[in-house]
Write a structure and sequence with these properties.
- It is a single chain.
- With 297 residues, this protein is an alpha/beta fold.
- The chain contains ten helices and 13 strands.
- A six-stranded mixed β-sheet has the order 5-6-7-3-8-9, with helices on both faces. Strands 11-12-10-13 form a four-stranded antiparallel β-sheet, with helices on one face. The chain has a three-stranded antiparallel β-sheet with strand order 2-1-4, with helices on one face.
- Helix 2 packs across helix 3.
- It is elongated and about 75 Å long.
- The relative contact order is 0.14.
Length: 297
């Protein structure tokens, strides 16, 4: 199984540190969302994974080996970084045929991937007339020529319509269920939430959080507390909670305390609670909380 191990990875460009002592794991059989604000260092990190960018220090291994030490790397790692890397006068079949020949793959693999990626009817068309969504599909087909066990996808849903996004989710889920390791960088958090198993969040090149989406969501779970004693209860909960905020004249949103703990603290002071409701955060809420972007201008 080919997982990805990032250990103490750092990249500096002169005085600017793009990636700062970054460590995380991407496990096989799962889709991992790689998230962060613009300029967080996501693309730089992914390019260091395949030696497109040399790290200042630290390491990345894929299946226990550095990319440069893999004998036929395209049979292990497929990467999609640019949706426009095609000769505009080549057809989709020509494009894949050239890359198949370069990689030593059978010509039959080209037709197989054109069918698999929904490009069979457009196989003879020049790529210069392709939509952004079709270019994304062709880039993904190119990355899959060697049937790799690891996929690195930078903004793979760019240019896809809702039908295309649904197709991509299903396609990636099938690949992950077959044991592949998939790392996706994306800004479309609503889409990522529907497909991601794990999440890695960075900001300014530093790791903020890494783990399963379910576990990270549970740690950020909020509890809505309905109480006529909102002011008093808020003062009591504040020292013990991560966050206490008013959600109305008689309602508090509390993070960092479970409902039973809130009820116990209220009962100890004789304060009334009329309702406790667990509120599960969306991936967007989790992202904004972790990165601090909610409070930034």
């Amino acid at each position: 199984m080919s997982g990805i191990e990032v250990r103490n990875l750092t990249k500096r460009y002169g005085p600017v540190t793009a990636v700062d002592d970054l460590s995380f794991t991407v496990r096989p059989g799962a889709i991992t969302a790689f998230l962060g604000p613009n300029g967080a260092g996501k693309t730089t990190t992914m390019r260091m994974m395949i030696d497109h960018v040399a790290p200042t220090s630290g390491s990345v291994t894929i299946g226990g080996r550095r990319y440069r030490d893999i004998l036929r790397p395209t049979t292990v790692v497929g990467a999609v970084f640019d949706a426009a890397s095609f000769h505009p006068f080549h057809s989709a079949r020509d494009h894949l045929g050239i890359y198949a020949a370069m990689g030593g793959y059978p010509s039959g693999r080209v037709d197989e991937l054109l069918e698999l990626l929904g490009l069979a009817e457009a196989a003879g068309r020049r790529t210069g007339g392709f939509s952004t969504g079709m270019r994304q599909r062709l880039n993904l087909a190119t990355a899959l020529l060697g049937d790799p066990r690891v996929l690195l996808l930078d903004e793979p849903s760019n240019g896809l319509d809702p039908e295309g996004m649904a197709w991509l989710r299903s396609f990636l889920r099938d690949l992950a269920d077959a044991g592949r390791t998939i790392l996706i960088s994306s800004h479309v958090l609503s889409e990522v939430q529907q497909v991601a198993d794990d999440v890695v969040v960075i900001r300014e090149g530093r790791l903020l959080a890494a783990g399963s989406l379910r576990d990270l969501s549970s740690t950020s779970q909020a509890v809505l507390v309905r109480t006529p004693d909102a002011t008093e209860l808020g003062q009591i909960l504040a020292p013990a909670a991560y966050l206490v905020e008013a959600n109305g004249p008689q309602e508090l949103r509390v993070r960092g305390l479970d409902p039973s703990r809130i009820a116990d603290l209220a009962a100890a002071r004789g304060l009334r609670i009329h309702g406790l409701t667990a509120e599960h955060p969306s991936l967007e809420q989790l992202f904004l909380d972790l990165t601090g972007e909610r409070t930034r201008p």
